[in-house]
Structure formats: structure tokens, C-alpha cells
Predict the 3D structure of the following.
Amino acid sequence: MNENKDRRSFFKLLGAGAVGASLASFGKSAFSKTKAVGGNKDEWKDSKVKVNIHPNAVKRNKKG
Amino acid sequence: MDNSKGKKINSQIDLPVLKSGSNTKQPSYWKSYESLKDGDSESLAEKKHNEFPEGADEFDLSKKSPVSRRKFLALMSASSAFAFTACTDYRDKGEIIAYNDKPEEVLPGNPNYYASTLLTGGYGEGILIKTREGRPILIEGNPQHPINQGKINSIGYARILDMYDPGRIEGPQKRSGDKFVDSDWETVDKEIISALKKAANAGKEISIVTNKIVSPTQKKLLEDFKAKYPTAEVYSYELFNDNNRSSAWKKSTGSSNYPLIDLDRASTIISIDCDFLATDGNVNENIRQYASTRNFEKPEDMSRFYAVEASMTLTGSNADYRLRLTPENYLDLLAALANRIASKLGKPTLSGFKSIDELSKENNWREEAVNNLLKDIETNIGKTIVLAGKQLPEEVHIVTNYLNELIGAKALYRNNERDVEIYPVANNRDLRTLSEKVKNGRVGVMVNLDANPAFHFPKELNIKENLSKVDTIISLSEFENETTSHSNFSLGINHDLESWGDAKIRSGVISTQQPVIAPLYETRQKEAVLLNWINEGENYSEDIYHKYLMNNWKNNIYPSLNKALPFKEFWYATLHEGVVKFNETTVTNYEFNTEALSSVRPFKKSNYTVVLQENYFVKDGRFAANGFLQESPHPITKITWDNCAMLSPSTAEELDVEMNDMIEVSLNGSQLELPVVVQPGMADKVVAVDLGYGRENAGPVGTDVGFNAIPLMTISGGISNWIYSGASVKKTGSTYELASVQEHHELDDELLRSEEVKDSDGNVVSGGETFERARNIIQEATVGDYLENPKILKEHQHDVFSITENFEYSSVKWGMNIDMNKCIGCNACNIACYVENNIPVVGKEEVKVGREMGWIRIDRYYAGEPDNPLVSNQPMLCQHCDNAPCENVCPVVATSHSNDGLNQMVYNRCVGTRYCANNCPYKVRRFNFFDFRDHLAQGYYKSDSTKNMMNPEVTIRARGVMEKCTFCVQRISHARQVAKEEGRPLKGSDVTTACQDACPANAIEFGDINNEDSRIAKMRDHDLGYHVLDHLNVRPNVTYVAKLRNTDTLGVVNSEHH
């Protein structure tokens, strides 16, 4: 009896989790925006990085 | 099932190897001293059966918090909801904005290559940088470079990570109290120029401390600096240098240029503790030349390599004959060999040294090895070379030079080129002079040009303690280090890939360095900073050093090269090639001066000997902040993220210690506690420790990793700066957990045991002994046996059959060969694979439980007695089996087979059951237990900057996904596209894999098995070609070429594993 009750409450929690997941997915864009900023730990956030090809470098198109 | 040793009782009844019986010459292999001691215990057998080491697949929460199973499951279900939401953006692409104005150089999707040079570390290696949409993503060797010929070492590959490292110093900083605050270049330049002038006017020294200088233009810049600030002095130092070799050569011949040696022309190579395949000399060139003498297709021309050494080195582990000897006796052996030849030639002999017989008895050398050594050195005149390690004392080098003179080694000296020393490397006297000046307050300004004296200088010089007596200390470096901690200014400098420069390490060759990307941060290259100080801060421009470099070439270098092209065309052509070659005459007429022998006396051993070694990856500690290099297993100990004390099994027994026990080493008034690794092949009573670890300020990745053994060094005593007799060692009683990968991913390979025959009382009268590994994972033979019977390894080959029809591969079918005669176990393939395939660094804690992610690993096997083991290296990667066991068990078909023979992974189909890894007999599959980039050091390698390093052709795998070697499928796809555009069929030679490109020994080949003319196809049927675990009928596509040892016998018997 007790076991059944526990199982029920387990599935309840699981169900709640699933609902939570679905609800959260509706708000994906807002959430992901927050995450894009906070995804990394703040101490290693590098907003200063700029990728620019050096103007005087002489390239090759192929390896050899 | 019969064999001559009796009926077997092993469970693997139908293994083909049983048919070989006792006639087989394959020794019994073992992977670690611990496994040898334990034998094939149940725990070891279980380890071998498991897909991952114990603990890898477990999240043992009971150890972490007292949570009941029910509570845990309830929490799991709730947290799974959060996990779903948290994962929603892991594939978030961010904003994608098209080029408004596309740079001319960039064709989206196509890589560009730039030739340049790596200057950090004093290598001067020619490199080729692959960029995608402006981002450097891979550093490889420049094929046009005459010295390294398209190869670079593992550090070269790993250096790309340093450029994107989020811990770089991003610009100029000024000390404010206990910390640095960001400043701007104009402010710091003004203050520094004022300090420089003040010091010069007061007659105080401006000490410029730098590592080895290889750039002729940098040398000119330093001369200009000294002209501007006359009190300036330059100290170019290296913790590991070959000053002893150079001074010995000077005493021996009067010349200061130690000759280059053509190892590829040598038939006998004798190394006296010379790690020439890893840390000594031009390693890429040495490996290439040495590997060329190990050609299994010309076995009769194969060189014979003797290694005499105390510590087990990478080079020594590749020797045909390896003789253990304590460093104090190196001179005895050299003198004994020299005396033997000299007495026959009527030349001077050395007295007071031990004889070969004495040494042989004391060290239990194999008679076969000693006899062959004496025979080879006497008969191979003009084809034998003796190499002494750079860390050895001057006396050892002098006697080595004498011995080389006696055996005609001069014939192997290169006549047309020599190494060039642009600026003399500081010796002990120079370091003492600088320290005295610092101590006496005679240094006004100290400029550390990417150097770290506070970490590297021996303790007795007290440099760290006395730095407060210097008025102004300026550190120019990429990362914070122990010296920046004591500096007034910390100036962030450019990475090699952001810098201009040149390098001359050899006569007749100068290579150029060009930036391939504008500086990521507000950093400047160190030469530009010095130049600006020379100009007193006036007229600074971003191309200040670029112009200086061009002017130096135009006015000083170009005129001496006698090139027909006008300068401008010449300059751009040189930048394009990355190197210029020209004629430069060298003098190589050397005569040995026997007076040099007068100072040579034997060394005496007392108590324990300490050998301080250069680490293969972090070197002297300057690369300690690089996660790729920290995670790369030490080729000998297989330890990651640490250093240790290597002890011989007998010494460990004497001290009553085993792996992970701590010992205290007392030497030169210092004590150091170190964890023990019991290392087969070590000389007794010798403690070998790698330097470069125990950094106190090396960012989140490198700080407090390992133990700093530099305090054990002294410049006033010792056999040399790196070897000390008279140490005392004791067990402390505490333990320390090292992360060793030696026993990870072990292939299942039981020992076969003969049946026990019992008498009527039940006593065993015969049988029961182990005689061979069941599966012949390592196969090898002697050159003599192979020449006598080329089919020696094929005699007992077992035909496997399949109950199903094999698939017909109609066009290209990819395969790989790995030549174990050439593989030296350097691990360059592993690091190249990390960079090419976006493999994450996982950190020490994860390595400990077997979660390291490398797609190719070097499995190292031993055979024979632990004191004198035979060593075999076997690179192990996905074998892309035709009948892949992993494919059959995947419930979601995430791993499948392509029609060109690739075992593929579909990452976004994988649900992470790990059945495939469980079913892989080669244990080459790797599971993303975490998002490791996010997991390590609080997301250190998941910063915006490190994302720029990722190869856009390779998917970044998410948590819960299985991954493994793809045979660089992205390169195959690219080659296929090129072939299509050129209207021709794809050929096997169109593709090279990252590991193949990296291998300095050219041990790895890749190509089309279906092309019968290709080497890939031919090696599959070669007498020495074999497939690991092929009797499982998985039909692997990686062919291993069995190792030939140039010895009379393999030196080990089959039944010595008990």
C-alpha cells in the first residue's frame, strides 16, 4: 500500500516535471536570452574578444 | 585444443593462438607494475571486462550526501524538468550576422593557411596556421620548412589554446596595493620610460631577463635598447640548457659549435641519458632521422640503438638494448669504452674508472647486450655515434667527444650546416651575477620579457626574496606568473599568432613570423613595447615592429642573401613560404684535444641520487596553464595533471612504498614531499622528478598542479644543475592520489595457463604456469628471426570466417596503417586530435575515474622483468571495423557504417545508452558524462574566447552523447568536394588525418584499402601487418605493423609472468 503511494507520488513529481518542461519551452526565447549572458560563469566572460584578420598577413589558399 | 604445455584450462577455448603452442616467441605483456604484481587477479580481470574504469559510470551519491533512493528518484524527476529547460539553449547559435563587407581573403567555408614561426620556447619551428573566417583553428608544421619539414611537437599543437585562453592578460596593468588595476598604454609607457631614464642616469642596471633568443631582429632591438639605455644588460636564460655540452665541445675542440649529427646515417646509436627523441636537440629532426633507420622494409639496414640511463625516458623506452645505470657511473662506462678502443689505437687512456665487467655485474646487464655493444662499437667505425644528454656534466661530454673521435663518429657530423646561437644563454655565473646585483640594490629596473625568474631561479639565489630591492619591475607576459606577482607593471603581450618576428636556429635558414589575426585584446607584442620605450613613447603605431622588422631585413639580412628578387617581392614571397634558405658556409674541421681529458675524474655515489627532468609537455613550467598539455599522459608514467617521484621497484620495496605513497626527499638543505610512482626500468636508488610543476600563479588550470622541485636545485653543488648525489629519502606515511591512465581502457587479454598435472595425493607435479597472452595484441620479432623466416608472425594465423556475406565497398574504402617500428609514443597525435576534433579537457578528477576524452591513446605495454622491461607503444583508436560490434547494439542506430568504410556516429541521434562502448573490444568510445567545458574550472574553457578556437567542421558534442575517432571525416568530406570540383574521382592520397599529419616519425598512414597499389592495401597483407583482436572477426581497418627489434633475442621468456 505504502509502496503504491510512493510510486504515485513519484509519478506525480515526474508529471510535474514534464509540465514544467513544456511550460519552460514556451518561454524558450526569453530564457535563452538570459542564458546566453549567464551561460558561462561571469568570471570567464570575454566580451572584449574581437576577431579581425591581420591586414598585413600573407595567406596561402592551400596547405602545400 | 592441444598444445605442448598440456590441455588448457583457460576459458577462451577457441582462441587461435592456442595452436601456436610453446613455439611462439611472443613474450607475456603487462601494462603496469601494479598489474604485474597482482597478476591476473579478479579485480584486474573485471577492470578489463568493463567498458570504463571503475567509477566512471557511477554517480555514487551515497558518498556525497545521505539521500535515500526514493528521495533521490523524486529529486531526479523534478530536476529532469529543469535539465530540459536548462538544455534548451545548448545548441543556441546566438546572433548570426552576414558580412556587410566581406574581407577579400575570406571565402566562407574554406580555410586559409598562413606560414609563420613559433618563437615561444626557443624552438623557432616553422608552422602553418589554418584559419576559418579569420579565426586560427589549428597549428601544424610548415611542409616547406627545411628543418621541421611539416611536423611540430605536441606543444606546438597545444599553443592554439593559449591564444584563446580566457586567463590572458588583456592589456597593461599597474600595481595598486596588493593587486593590479587596468591601465592604458600611454600612462604605463610614460611612467616606465621615466623609470628607465632614472635608472640609466643613476648608473643603475636595467636588467632585461628573457628566455632563449632565436630572432636576429630581436637581438638587434636589444642592442638598440642598450644603445639608448647604456646601463641595460640582457640575461637570456633557460632552466634546461646545453651549456655543459657547448663548454665541453669548446674544451675538446676549441670550437664553440657542437656539430649537427646525421642520425639517419648511423648504424649504431648509443645514448648516454640523452633524451634526443623528446627533449634534447631538434627533436622533430631527430625523430624523423631516427625513424628512417627503423624501416621494416629494409630490416638488414635497421639501426641498433643502445640507451644507457638512470631514469626511464621516452628515448630509452625505444632502445633495442637498454642498460640501467646510475648517473655517477656514466663516466665509468664511457671511459671503459674509450680505453678499450684507445689502447688498440695507441691513444691516451683514462685511469681510475670501473671496468665494463664490474659495471655489468653491478647492474645485472644482459650478457647479450654488453657483448653486442662492444662488438658494434669496435666494428662499426664511422657509423656509430655516442650521444650524451644535455643535462650531464661537462666531464661526461668531454669523454663522449673523445670516444666519438676514437670511433670515427666524425663521419656522421654534418658538414654543410650547424646550429646557430643568436644570443648566448646565461650560465650559472651570469645568474649569480644578476642575483647579487638585485640583492645589493644595483638594479634600477628589471624587465621580464616573457620570462619567469621568480619561479625558475634556484632557491639559493634568493631572487624572489630580493626583488623588493629593485626600484621598478616590469613583466611582459601572456599570462600571470610568479614574477608578475612581484612586479609594478604587468603588461599583456601578443601570442605568437598575433606577432611579427623572425628566427634563425640553423645556418642557411631564417624563418619568418607573421600575425594571422589582429590582437584579440589590448595587448602589444613585446618587441613593439621595447621599441616604443627606445623612441620614448613618441610616434607609436600598431605596425611599429612590423616596420622595424622589414627595415632590418631590407638593410641587414636581405643584402647578405644575394637574392635576385627586388626586396618587396622577396619579402612577400618569404612571408608566403614562411622561410628563406640561402648558402652559408660553416667550418666543421674538428680535432680532439686530449688535454681536455686531464680534468676528468670519476664521480662518487652516496645515498640516493636525484635526477631533475624536463617535463615532456609543460616543459620548465611555462606551459603549465595549458589544459591540453596538462591532460596529456606522461609518456612514461602515464600520469596526468601531476608530477611524481619515479622509483625503481627495488627502491620502492626498500622504502616500503607503493604508488601514491608520499616520500620526503631531502637535498641541498631543502625538503620536498612527492607522491611515488613505481616505474619499471629505473636504476636503483635514483629518484627522478619532473620540473615545471607546482606553479603558484598559473591561472585556474595550472596553479597548484603537481609539486615544485626547483627548490631542490643548486648551482654550486651537484653533479650538474640537474643531477645530485647524496639525497636522503624517507616514507612519510601519507598518500596522494595520482591520476594515471595506464590501466584505463585495458584490452581484455588473459594469460593462458597450462593444465596442472597432479599426483595421486593431489600435489601439482607439473603445469600451471602462464605462458602467453591469449590475444597477441602486441606482436614483435627480432630482425634476425624475421630475416630467417619472414612468415614468423603469420605462421599461426587463424582464418576467421563469417556466417554472413561481406559488404562490397565499390569505391574508396578508408583504412589506416600504424607502424610500431616508428611510433615512439610521443603523444603528438593525441594532442593534434584534441585540437582538430574539438575534444574537451576534463580535468584531473575526471581522469581519475577514467573519463578522459582523447580519441586516440597510446597504449604502452611492458614485457620481461620490471627492472629491465621491453617497452612497446601501440596507438589505439577506433578501428572502424567492418563488422563493428558497436553498431549492432545501438538501439537508436546512432552508430552505423558508411559505404566508404567509416564507422559513423550520429550525435543528435545518440541517447547515451553506452551499449556501444560496452560492446567495443578496443575500448575507444568516449562518453560525455558532463558538458566538460562547462564542468572544468567553472567553465574556464567555455568562455567566448575559447569558442573561437573550435573547428567549425566538427560538431561540439553535448552531454550524454557518445563520441570516438571519425577518421577525420570532415577532411574526407572536404577532399571529396575538391575532387568533385576538379572533376576526378576521390583518391586515398587526397586525405590526411590530424594524427597522421602530427606524427613526427611518419608512423601513421591513411588511405584507400581498395586501391591495391596503395601502401594501405599492401600493408594489410604484409608479413608484419596484423590486426588487433582480428580473431573476433570484427574485421578492423587499422593495420598495425609489428615491431622488429634489432637484438639477438627478445630477451624475455614466456613464462616469467607468474
Q: What stands out?
A: Chain B has 31 helices and 44 strands. The mean pLDDT of chain B is 90.
